[in-house]
Amino acid sequence: MRDHLLLKEYQDSELQLKYFNKFGYAFFKNVLSNKEVLELRNAMDRLTPIKESFDRDGIHPDGKFFEKHIKCVFNRDPIFLAYVDREKIIDFVASVVGHNVHAGSKISEYENFHIIGMTAWITGPGRKDQQLHCDWLPFPLPEDVIKDARVNVPLLVTTVHYYLDDLFEDLGPTKFVPGSHLAGRLPNGDTDWNGQGEQSVLCNAGDVLVFRSDVWHRGTANKSNQNRYLLQVHYANRMIAQKFPPYLNKFQFNESILEQASLRQRRLLGDHPNAAYD
């Protein structure tokens, strides 16, 4: 079995989508410049936690290691606005979660999905291994059903990882089991599926990975002497609620940042036209 994930970008968008549907992820190389990587890392260092938003900045409660996990960063610093709709990435995301799940009139590709979260995540030395998991398995199904050529399980949530380090094994890369979204179930202790085992994402700062919510993956231990930086952005079909804590109307958009947002960015942040259930 391979020990590291095959990271190949297809310039043909249809081939890129076909690979994503087969293996549960898609890779994009050199999306960010070195300058952008440094700017993001510095911006993440400047962020301060909001307790009511479930932010963390300090020693993780599950172990003696540093972790900074700041949510909704698009609302904290205008530098993050560019990652609401990063060119090339946003068009691919639109192709996988921007579909209209209900019959009716045609909907613009940027009207039927939105951001549900954007997190700045720094993990320090000593971070422990995670368990293999899915972020969300909306459609548990028998494996033979998923394998039926007539079945196309819709994707409702996808995640974009912007890598801000050159990754190596001791830095704690994410591991994936390619194609495991087609298992139709949670890992339940398994570490391989259909002949594919866990494989590490070993890429460079500035690279990007887009993956399904139902593909098996896990974070691994940071055995190095440096912090790992990651910006993750979650998108979902419009019918999926946005995850902007604190809840019960306590979250408020930063007006000064909204004023700088483009019409497309505002749409992706939730400024939708009237539709079903409104």
Overview of this protein structure:
17% of the residues lie in helices and 20% in strands. The protein has a single domain (13-268), classed as q2cbj1_9rhob like domain (Jelly Rolls, Sandwich). It has six helices and twelve strands. It is an alpha+beta fold. The strands form three sheets. Strands 1-10-5-12-4-3-2 form a seven-stranded antiparallel beta sheet. Strands 9-6-11 form a three-stranded antiparallel beta sheet, with no helix packed on it. The chain has a two-stranded antiparallel ribbon with strand order 7-8. The protein has helices at residues 13-23, 34-46, 89-97, 143-147, 255-258, 263-268, and strands at 25-28, 56-59, 66-70, 113-123, 157-163, 175-176, 192-193, 196-197, 199-200, 208-212, 217-218, 228-237.
Mean pLDDT metric: 93
What is the 3D form? globular
Termini separation = 49 Å
CATH class: Mainly Beta
- Tally of contiguous helical segments: 6
Give the strand order, joined by hyphens, for the main sheet.
1-10-5-12-4-3-2
Estimate percent helicity: 10-25%
What is the topology?
Elements: H1 13-23, E1 25-28, H2 34-46, E2 56-59, E3 66-70, H3 89-97, E4 113-123, H4 143-147, E5 157-163, E6 175-176, E7 192-193, E8 196-197, E9 199-200, E10 208-212, E11 217-218, E12 228-237, H5 255-258, H6 263-268
Antiparallel strand pairs: 1-10, 2-3, 3-4, 4-12, 5-10, 5-12, 6-9, 6-11, 7-8
Describe this protein with a few key phrases.
278 residues, alpha+beta, Jelly Rolls, 3-stranded antiparallel beta sheet, 6 helices, globular
